């Protein structure tokens, strides 16, 4: 078994790890397909069992056990996390896509709530600034100058952090 040093992983190494994970997953899927085929053959042998079919039955049982062992070894090399809710849905005979749809809909609802709260706070801030400007115009002007100065400073710091020693700019890659 090969071990990898995660701190030494580069972008190219990450691609290799992703390919390894996909390859391992494909191996597990192929093993599952093979096991299903073997179970089907075993079912046919059992359903038409006779004394003369005892040896093929034992051979198919051994093949199923061997393939289950292979599947377990292959599965150990995969790092896939499945939420218990999905497993429970499958156990209940339901479609796991329901879980995905529910999670997605909950995210949309929470996003809308958060967006509404943000808009309300922006509106409140604007209203308070308008009221404060009527009562304390000089202080509000000073406040706006301070905000503009700090925003410009923050922007300058952000740009300075994204410049590499050789003068190139760091570019955030899209995934």
From TrEMBL:
Keywords: Activator, Nucleus, Transcription, Transcription regulation
GO biological process: regulation of transcription by RNA polymerase II
One Pfam family it belongs to: Med10
Recorded GO CC terms: chromatin; mediator complex
Region Disordered, residue ranges: 1-24, 155-175
Family assignment from sequence similarity: Belongs to the Mediator complex subunit 10 family.
Subunit structure: Component of the Mediator complex.
The protein's name: Mediator of RNA polymerase II transcription subunit 10
Organism from which the protein derives: Amborella trichopoda
Gene name per UniProt: MED10
């Amino acid at each position: 078994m090969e071990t990898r040093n995660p701190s030494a992983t580069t972008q190219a190494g990450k691609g290799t790890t992703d390919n390894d994970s996909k390859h391992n997953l494909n191996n597990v899927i192929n093993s599952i397909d093979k096991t299903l085929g073997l179970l089907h053959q075993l079912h046919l042998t059992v359903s038409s069992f006779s004394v003369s079919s005892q040896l093929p039955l034992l051979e198919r049982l051994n093949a199923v056990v061997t393939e289950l062992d292979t599947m377990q070894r292959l599965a150990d090399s995969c790092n896939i996390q499945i939420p218990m809710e999905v497993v429970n849905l499958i156990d209940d005979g339901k479609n796991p896509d329901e879980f995905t749809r529910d999670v997605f809909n909950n995210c949309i609802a929470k996003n809308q709530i958060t967006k509404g709260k943000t808009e309300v706070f922006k509106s409140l801030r604007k209203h308070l600034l308008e009221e404060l400007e009527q009562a304390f115009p000089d202080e509000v002007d000073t406040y706006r100058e301070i905000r503009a100065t700090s925003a410009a400073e923050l922007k300058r710091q952000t740009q300075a952090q994204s410049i590499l020693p050789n003068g190139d700019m760091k570019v955030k890659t899209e995934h």
